[in-house]
Amino acid sequence: MNRNVSTFTLIRYAVGYVFIASAIMKLIVSDFTHVFAGLGLPYPQMIVLIVGITELACGILIVLNHYVRKATIPLLVIMIAALLLTKLPIIQTGFFQFAFEARLDIVMIILLYILWKK
């Protein structure tokens, strides 16, 4: 029995896990609406629901290795929007503070790009 797991598969599992866990939190925890409202986004309840369902569906598709390339596109949009809305304003406090706060967003964008490119 072959137990070797490819790097691509590990990336799929890690990315899928992150987005599935994030989606569950958005869909279950009511405080997430306040986070989105605090960003000044209109209709925060609807946006949380749309983002949560999108993350859940795309995360599952990525884990199951179905439509991986197509599933990465909405997640890239979500991650870039999150970076611009929540992390870019931090750059005013200094580049290193921004780099620290944005590190996970940047890693997820890179991993999504790798999945999209393959």
UniProtKB/TrEMBL annotation:
The keyword Cell membrane applies. It is found in: Cell membrane. The chain crosses the membrane at residues 12-37, 43-64, 71-90, 96-116. InterPro entries: DoxX, DoxX-like_oxidoreductase. It is a multi-pass membrane protein. The keyword tRNA-binding does not apply. Its main location: membrane. Keywords: Cell membrane, Membrane, Transmembrane, Transmembrane helix. GO terms for cellular component: plasma membrane. PANTHER family: INNER MEMBRANE PROTEIN YPHA-RELATED (PTHR33452:SF1), OXIDOREDUCTASE CATD-RELATED (PTHR33452). Belongs to the DoxX family. This is Putative membrane protein YphA (DoxX/SURF4 family). It comes from Saliterribacillus persicus.
